[in-house]
Amino acid sequence: MSEQFDTPILIAGGGPVGLVLALELERHGVDAILIERNPSTTRHPKMDITNGRSMEIFRRLGVADRLREVAVPDDHKVSVIWCDKPEGMQLARFDYPSVNEAREQLRERNDGTMALEPGMRVSQVLLEPVLKDILDSESKHIDVRFGWALSSLEQDSDGVTATIQSTETGETQTIRCQYLAGCDGANSVARNALGIPVNTITVPQVLASGDRNALLDDYRGEPPEATQPPMKRYMIHFKSPERDMFEKFGHSWHLQSPRGWSMIAQDDVDTWTVHLPPELYPGIEDADPKDVLYALFGREFDCEVLVHNRWLPRLSLADSYGAGRVWLAGDSVHQVIPTGGYGMNSGVGDALGLGWVLAASVNGWGGDKLFAAYEIERRHVAARNRLASGWHSTVRLRIREACPDNLWEEGPEADAARAEIGGYIQALGNLENEAWGIEWGYRYDDSPLICHEQGQAPAYDWERYEPSSWPGARAPNLFLQDGTPLYDKFGRGFTLLNFSGGQCDQLIAAAQAVGMPLVLLDVAEPAAAAMYGCNLVLVRPDQHVAWRGDSQPESLEDAQAILDVVRGAGD
Fold first, then answer.
1. In terms of DSSP bridges, do strands 78-83 and 518-522 run parallel, antiparallel, or are they unpaired?
2. Coil/strand/helix, residue 60
3. E strands within 475-516?
4. Residues 341, 47, 376, 24: is their CA dihedral positive or negative?
5. Do residues 498 and 504 make contact, with C-beta atoms less than 8 angstroms apart?
6. How far is residue 447's CA from residue 320's CA, in Å, rounded to a whole number?
7. In sequence order, which ranges of 369-443 are alpha helices (DSSP H)?
8. What is the distance between the alpha carbons of residues 58 and 344, in angstroms, rounded to a whole number?
9. Is the dihedral of CA 235, 237, 240, 242 positive or negative?
10. Vertex 195: Cα angle to 194 and 196 (nearest 5)
11. Cα separation, 504 vs 547, whole angstroms
């Protein structure tokens, strides 16, 4: 007689990663309990950009439009502006299209190089409540319990026994589950229970490692343990009605200075977040945060401080993503510096990757290699993103080191110094907001769930995304002749794209034999066929290409062998 579990999945952690994982399990019809130690969603601003790949995932989950309702309006342009001081002079700027303009570009180009959804400016303070409300009000499979923390866990070959505790009353409960997903942050109880170490590097180490191309070539290697303490930062999150004061140079998403401080416009209305190195204001930790703001902006002004605290930027990566029946995602396995916005966005990708693997395992069609493959795939992405985040931070460090002493003075010499540092910033560029290869161009080249090919793979760098159906790559999107995005036609499970109208019965029969969800999608459009380059392309639930070919396998046995690989049951 099979064991009776309290739930198939226990999700520890109700931040964005845990909430997205819950939504993914809901999509697959898998029951789960989600616990979160805090009684409510976060009060800290944390992230402020949801990139195009994450927005594709949110669209796939059916929540993208609802998130945009609380985000910065779609008609607002996005600008990163460098200045000497808030009331001073502009040094350099990088302007990007609004969401509406990006959508127009997407349809006009329709070449697969862009994500289906433009990025979205929204604070985590606003994003989390929307996701939680959807689960609370609409979910049929997820039991959401805020105010409960994971206390301990023990696992065996059949499942996991977790002890959870009410953070209000101290009451404890025991939950027996088939799998536990640790989405419980940098101080993860789940990771610590497994005894998994975390490797941390520093920005100076990244800076000393050589040029960016050499760094990219070596990203799979493990750098040495950190030998220097991490940089320190101080954050002040505040509201103010004096909007004109913060928009001397027009709407700016990021307003930043060579001195090392930056200000983020959270909503383009009345909410901002300032990050600065503590040495800019001696005694900052004991000071009134309003006084710090007054000193930074050169005068007193009407403001309400919402949150203020010191924080330590980290470039950390766990040695493993889990073991047995306990698997980790998000900050529990990787932490990055906010430059580039790879923290939550990497975690959203983890949640998608872990979600379909958990669903496949619980629903009985997944093989025993799924979880090991999840670690290989997502740890590869995290290692790459960690180095990218560190590299972007070195750019800011170079600017700070190049900052002339007379930047804030008046006169011809100071004007020349400002022009020189502005030109230097413009020449360095703003890759941290333009690295499309990092954001949606990652590939799972080493995954055992991919039917790999011989030959020359497409380019794989930081700046560019090369649309391709190369196995392991994210499947490219384009708009079909009726205006519908190809992505919107993908199924919940696997999707078999048929561009030639040829036979697919062997693959369909092989999927049915093992209960693997597979949707056949006939796409009789030359542009799509040319972009994908093969007659048949098998796309996974996470929108990555698992296999491709110009014809289906000759026998049912050969088709079964392909599907055994992609569902983690191969030899």
1. unpaired
2. helix
3. 494-498
4. negative
5. yes
6. 15
7. 370-402, 412-428, 436-439
8. 13
9. positive
10. 95
11. 13
Produce one character per residue of 284-321: b if its CB has 16 or more CB atoms within 10 Å, e if not.
beeeebbebbeebbeeeeebeebebeeeebbbbbbeeb
What is the model's pLDDT at position 208? 59
**pLDDT higher than threshold 70 for residue 218:** no
Token pair listed for 56: 């594709």
Per DSSP, helices labelled H in 448-541 are 505-514, 526-532
Residue whose pair of structure tokens reads 């520093």 in the numeric block? 202
Residue type, 176: R
Q: What's the rounded Cα separation, in Å, for the pair 354 and 360?
A: 10
Q: Which of 278, 276, 282 is nearest to 264 (CA)?
A: 276
Q: What is the mean pLDDT of residues 30-54?
A: 93
**Cβ neighbourhood burial of 1 (10 Å; 0-12, 13-18, 19+):** exposed
8 Å CB contact between 74 and 68: yes
pTM of the entire predicted model:
0.94
Pairing outcome for strands 148-155 and 78-83: unpaired
Would you give the DSSP letter of residue 225?
Answer: P
pLDDT tens digits along 312-367: 888 899 999 999 999 999 999 999 999 899 999 999 999 999 999 999 999 999 99
Q: Which of 543, 526, 567 is nearest to 52 (CA)?
A: 543
Closest CA to 337 of 380, 384, 391: 391
Residue with tokens 């004061």: 245
- Backbone phi, psi, residue 340, to 5°: 100, -20
d(CA 376, CA 17): 19
The residue among 258, 254, 248 whose CA lies nearest residue 406 is 258
CA distance 137 to 27: 15
Torsion sign, CA atoms 406, 407, 410, 416: positive
Q: What is the DSSP letter of 31?
A: -
Cβ atoms of 358 and 9 within 8 Å: the answer is yes
